[in-house]
Design a protein that fits this description.
Elements lengths: L1 E6 L3 H4 L7 E6 L2 H7 L5 E3 L5 H10 L5 E3 L10 H7 L2 E3 L6 H16 L2 H9 L17 E5 L3 H12 L3 E5 L7 E2 L13 E4 L13 H5 L6 E4 L8 H9 L5 E4 L19 E3 L11 H18 L14
Helix pairs in contact: 5-7
Length: 312
């Protein structure tokens, strides 16, 4: 029998489909999770407290397979997992649909000045002109990252007649390579950031990159806050050297109440809600886990295995 340590939150979605060779041990609290972790050969330790997850992984010395609904796993001890030979499957693509929709929402919100429309309604004020007059049709977007989210973003922007240029690890038809995009930043109305969080992408957009953008360019970040030099971004927004920023992610999270990003009229902070704007996250995650359990028992390849050297 293989011991699987799992949360009671997913029990109704998983238990009816457990293979005969799996012995589940369910936890309902952080204390139970940490107590059961050393027995886990299969572990699913998801929690909003990332440090707690990392501690559970550290305690799980028998672990052979770690599953998580998180797509970005830079907070986990990846070197330790690699050294132990642990297979890690993540949630890449689970939230891709709703996050891609959030990108379109962010672009439309900033293009049409919709926040000002909402505020006018709060004031019971009938506006006589539109606060935002940009059109998505005919605009140009640079899409940094072409994984599950990036592909869905590109599909949806194409429907709005946005010309999308994709940045991929290797250049291909309709895409440019990682060494080319910086020289072309001034060509785009939108910079959409959808890269994985890795040491390689940390602060990949800094003061120089921001300075190379069009003065009306808008950054949309649904990746990780650390991908952008936030101090450089705040300075550019304060000085209106770019058009604005739609930020689903920040550094840190939650953003401190006195942080300047909250008050800037050309910054939208959406509190990392893009992936939560749905009702099917746990169902999709549980269904993938059940499929992977069957593959694990059969000795077949698992879905969405993380390359621990790359971090995604």
């Amino acid at each position: 029998m293989t011991t699987a340590v799992l949360s009671t939150l997913v029990r109704p979605l998983v238990e009816p489909y457990l293979p005969a060779g799996i012995e589940p041990r369910w936890y309902a609290s952080r204390e139970e999770m940490l107590a059961l972790a050393p027995a886990a050969e299969i572990g699913w330790f998801d929690h909003e407290d990332k440090a707690l997850m990392a501690e559970a992984v550290a305690r799980a010395g028998r672990l052979r397979w770690l599953n998580t609904l998180y797509a970005g796993i830079d907070f986990l001890p990846l070197e330790t997992l690699a050294a132990r030979g642990v297979t890690v499957t993540n949630g890449a693509g689970i939230n891709a649909l709703t996050i891609a929709e959030y990108v379109v929402m962010g672009m439309l919100t900033t293009a049409k000045g919709y926040r000002e429309v909402v505020r006018a309604q709060d004031r019971h004020e009938w506006l006589l002109d539109a606060p935002g007059k940009r059109e998505l049709a005919g605009s140009r977007a640079l899409l940094l990252g072409y994984g599950a989210i990036g592909k869905l973003v590109a599909e949806r922007l194409a429907a709005f007649a946005v010309e999308v240029t994709v940045v991929r690890r290797s250049a291909a038809a309709g895409a440019i390579g990682p060494g080319e995009w910086r020289d072309r930043l001034g060509e785009f109305d939108w910079i959409v950031v959808a890269v994985p969080a890795t040491p390689e992408t940390d602060a990949m957009i800094g003061a120089e990159e921001i300075a190379a953008m069009r003065p009306d360019a808008i950054i949309v970040n649904i990746a990780r806050g650390a991908v952008i030099d936030q101090d450089a971004l705040v300075a550019a927004l304060e000085q209106r050297r770019i058009g604005g920023a739609f930020l689903d992610v920040t550094t840190p999270e939650p953003l401190p109440a006195d942080h300047p990003l909250w008050s800037l009229d050309n910054a939208h902070v959406t509190m990392h809600l893009s992936g939560r704007s749905q009702t099917q996250m746990f169902q999709r995650t549980a269904a993938r886990f059940v499929r992977n359990l069957a593959a694990w028992e059969a000795g077949s390849p698992l879905e969405h295995v993380v390359d621990l050297a790359r971090g995604y």
